[in-house]
Amino acid sequence: MPAEDAAKFEQLLAQELKALAVFNCARYRLGNTETQAWIDAGRPQG
């Protein structure tokens, strides 16, 4: 991936992760329980 595309992708990913919630996690095929646990843990990034 070209560096300029990678930077744009990283920005988009960060935005989507900030907006991720139990009510919209199905769009990414994530389970409610796992998503809530990740949110409760402070949204760790790796």
Shape: elongated
Number of strands: 0
Mean pLDDT over all positions: 95
Fraction of residues in β-strands:
under 5%
Q: Main β-sheet: number of strands, strand sense, barrel status?
A: none
- Structural category is mainly alpha
Q: What is the distance, rounded to the nearest whole angstrom, between the alpha carbons of the first and last residues?
A: 21 Å
- Portion of residues within helices: 55-70%
Give me the strand/helix succession. HH
The number of helical segments is 2
Low-confidence stretches: none
Rg result: 12 Å
Domains (count): 1
Observed structural traits:
elongated; 46 residues; single chain; mainly alpha
Overview of the molecule:
The structure is a single chain. The protein is mostly helical. It has one domain. 57% of the residues lie in helices and 0% in strands. It is elongated, with a radius of gyration of 12 Å. The mean pLDDT is 95.
Question: What can be said about this structure in brief?
Answer:
This protein has 46 residues and is mainly α. The protein has helices spanning 3-19, 32-40.
How would you summarize the topology of this molecule?
Layout lengths: L2 H17 L12 H9 L6
